[in-house]
């Protein structure tokens, strides 16, 4: 039972770290699209600006989802640690 709990905790820790890294990466990509929106360019049309803003919103929204998933797994791990400490 203890080994299974440790395996589950290890899987949850790796998922938490992965989702946090995905969130950070998407946050960076979204900020680059935002920079593409606000920096002036000679050949940029309104369609390009709207496409950049759409991509910015999309990437930042997915980044928020990944950060929330990471926090969810962090809370689950904290609850598992609390239960383990109470059982000992």
Automatic annotation (TrEMBL):
<protein>
    <recommendedName>
        <fullName>YrhC-like protein</fullName>
    </recommendedName>
</protein>
<dbReference type="Pfam" id="PF14143">
    <property type="entry name" value="YrhC"/>
</dbReference>
<keyword id="KW-0472">Membrane</keyword>
<feature type="transmembrane region" description="Helical">
    <location>
        <begin position="21"/>
        <end position="39"/>
    </location>
</feature>
<keyword id="KW-1133">Transmembrane helix</keyword>
<feature type="transmembrane region" description="Helical">
    <location>
        <begin position="51"/>
        <end position="70"/>
    </location>
</feature>
<dbReference type="InterPro" id="IPR025418">
    <property type="entry name" value="YrhC-like"/>
</dbReference>
<keyword id="KW-0812">Transmembrane</keyword>
